[in-house]
Amino acid sequence: MADIFREIDEEVRRDKAAELWKKYGTFITALVVLAVLGVAGWQFWLHRELQASQAVGAKLEEALKASRDNRGAEAESILVELSANAPAGYRQIARFRLAAETAKRDATAGATAFDGLANDATLDQLYRDLARLRAGMLRVDLVPYTEIRTALEPLATPQGVWRHSAREFLGIAAMKANLFDDAGRWFDAIVTDPASPQVLRQRTDLYLALVRGGPVQTKN
Question: I want to staple 99 with a disulfide (CB 3.0 to 4.6 A). Which of 113, 133, 175, 195 is the partner?
Answer without folding.
Answer: 113
